[in-house]
Design a protein that fits this description.
Blueprint lengths: L1 E2 L7 H6 L7 E6 L18 H6 L10 H12 L3 E6 L4 H8 L3 E4 L12 H9 L8 H8 L1 H10 L7 E4 L14 E5 L13 E2 L2 H15 L3 E5 L5 E7 L6 E2 L3 E3 L14 H7 L9 E2 L6 H17 L5 E8 L5 E7 L13 H9 L3 H15 L4
Parallel strand pairs: 1-10, 2-3, 2-4
Antiparallel strand pairs: 5-8, 6-7, 6-8, 9-10, 9-11, 9-13, 11-12, 13-14
């Protein structure tokens, strides 16, 4: 396995590695329903009442612009068909029989939702990009992920799974803590108020959110150090860490907690008014970069990720890296003005958007013996 900390390959070298065999590719996806035909979204103000009433059900789904950008990138070299990830998808896969599927579908229902499309494809014996149903389901369940990491001695903050308020009888964590819905992504359900500093506050917030999200919550000790996100690309000996990104949480408004919350990601940090929140490559020592890269690769291997993933890491009070989350379906907003981490790391590495998407497809095609 390889990792690259501060180095960048020349674009000509990377481009020569891209898959040049033409394939019949299906792109399977979900588009945010609140978007209109132009791709515009209803603006959300930053006041608390707007946030309270905002429906974040589809926060994980992609924009029209992102889906079109992925399609256009694949279409440079391949024949592309579009298959929306809904209840009609299985029959479309069965009838159209693509050679391979590029999967960015999140789906909507249940804690296994990210695994639903791959499970269909496994049944139909159609290859696809990205991780398999087991890995996708495991990584979506934050508590189960931390249990697997803990078993393999991969550092992660101390935590408690709270399925009801009765579970707080087992509470033995140090404040402050962070509380998160156990099976959500894109900072869904992680608000500024998820940073909790007392037991009474924790109990009050859990009471409110249990009914809203209808699922258990993960409560974990807050790690006070610097935060990083790591894009990992490839399989086996070709797996590599792209340039590490640091989240500059000191750029957040002073009234917000030092976490990349829903407010920070979707309300404060916008294309029209972007925060200078990401540094890529991260300004860190070679020693720390090596530690972070090694931790990311170990995590990627232990969870059996395939083709690509993004791994979030935060330093503890002693400055040691801990894994806080794994996203095997990373977001890939195409506009460089958007703070989208995987494309940002890829650009620093030397891959433009189209090359990045096609490299993921290449790794999936190689893994499935389509070359």
């Amino acid at each position: 396995m390889l990792y690259f900390v501060q180095k960048k390959l020349k674009g000509s070298v990377i481009s020569s590695l891209l898959l040049n065999k033409k394939l019949k590719v299906a792109l399977t996806y979900n588009v945010k329903p609140e978007e209109n035909i132009t791709g515009e979204r209803t603006p959300l103000s930053s006041n608390s009442s707007s946030l309270k009433n905002f429906n974040d059900t589809y926060a994980e789904w992609d924009s029209i612009d992102t889906v079109n950008a992925i399609r256009d990138a694949l279409a440079v070299n391949h024949d592309v068909m579009m298959i929306e990830a809904d209840e009609n998808a299985f029959e479309k896969f069965r009838t159209l029989r693509p050679e391979i599927v590029f999967n960015v579908a999140e789906c909507a229902y249940g804690t296994s939702r990210e695994a639903q499309i791959p499970a269909m494809l496994d049944m139909l014996q159609i290859p696809y990009s990205g991780s398999d149903p087991l890995t996708l389901t495991t990584c979506l369940d934050k508590a189960r992920t931390k249990e697997v990491l803990s078993y393999h001695n991969i550092p992660t903050s101390k935590f408690l799974l709270v399925e009801s308020l009765k579970d707080l009888a087992k509470f033995d964590l140090k404040f402050p803590v962070i509380m998160k819905p156990v099976a959500e992504g894109s900072s869904k359900g992680i608000f500024d108020s998820s940073f909790v500093e007392s037991f009474e506050q924790l109990k009050e917030r859990l009471t409110e959110l249990f009914s809203e999200y209808n699922q258990p919550f993960l409560v974990e000790e807050f790690l006070p150090g610097r935060e990083f996100t790591v894009a990992v690309l490839g399989n086996g000996d070709e797996t590599r860490v792209l340039p590490i990104i640091e989240l500059n949480l000191n750029e957040l408004p002073s009234h917000l907690a030092p976490i990349y919350s829903y407010e920070a990601k979707w309300v404060v940090d916008t294309k029209d008014n972007p925060l200078n929140i990401f540094s890529c490559p991260a300004k860190i020592s070679d020693e720390l970069a090596a530690k972070i890269s090694d931790l990311a690769l170990r995590t990627y291997k232990v969870l059996r990720c395939k083709d690509w993933s993004r791994i979030d890491i935060r330093l503890d009070a002693k400055g040691e890296p801990n894994v806080i989350e794994i996203n095997p379906l990373p977001g890939v907003l195409p506009d460089p003005k958007d703070n989208s981490c995987f494309p940002k790391a890829a650009r620093t590495f030397g891959l433009n958007y189209s090359e990045m998407i096609n490299k993921v497809l290449e790794h999936a095609a190689k893994r499935n013996n389509l070359l």
